[in-house]
Amino acid sequence: MGNLVSQYLEAALDRMANYWTKPSRILLLGLDGAGKTTLLYKMKLGEAITTIPTIGFNVETFKYKNIEFTAWDIGGQSKLRPLWRFYYEGADAVIFVIDSADRYRIDEAVHELHRVFEDDALRDCKLLVLANKQDQPDCMNVEELREKLSLHRVTRNPSHISKTVAVSGQGIDEGMISVGSSRFFVLVVYGKTKKKP
């Protein structure tokens, strides 16, 4: 049943992509080492690449499931986080990546997520939380993260948590398809783009 629903949503996304021309502007945020850059290049290239810590940002435009994105992967080191706010303007959505195996820094990740969404520039932004590194021993599952994150206190906009393993690509489709349903991409793309003439 779930596979049938995923196939239906994917087909719907393919059809919707024909109506919009402007890429959706996505911010990839999260603490350093969460897997943001790995995720970005897995979506763009379809393969995992060796990455180094991002100092500054990476920006890529690509199609994923026939929807065009411009994704900004912004470094997550503590000294770079105050600079995140300079990238908020014009963002359609935030994908906040969490290292599910890093229990030591989960409170720090929660604090940063809440701080990000206190900014008025993201008032209308949609949120996808990717619980990355689900292949690691003793990682936090989605239910545990949902409780810790208190997403209802972060944003009144549609939000979703999806479990992923960025290096293998596991869960990326599920997260992006659930985001692509009426909970996310329809709202993101419809509100920010123009239909083709």
Automatic annotation (TrEMBL):
GO terms for molecular function: GTP binding; GTPase activity; metal ion binding. SUPFAM superfamilies: P-loop containing nucleoside triphosphate hydrolases (SSF52540). Signal peptide: none annotated. Mg(2+) binds at T37, T54. The keyword Nucleotide-binding applies. The keyword Transferase does not apply. InterPro entries: P-loop_NTPase, Small_GTP-bd, Small_GTPase_ARF, Small_GTPase_ARF/SAR. SMART domains: ARF (SM00177), RAB (SM00175), SAR (SM00178). GO terms for biological process: establishment of cell polarity. NCBIfam families: small_GTP. PANTHER family: ADP RIBOSYLATION FACTOR-RELATED. This is ADP-ribosylation factor. It comes from Phytophthora rubi.
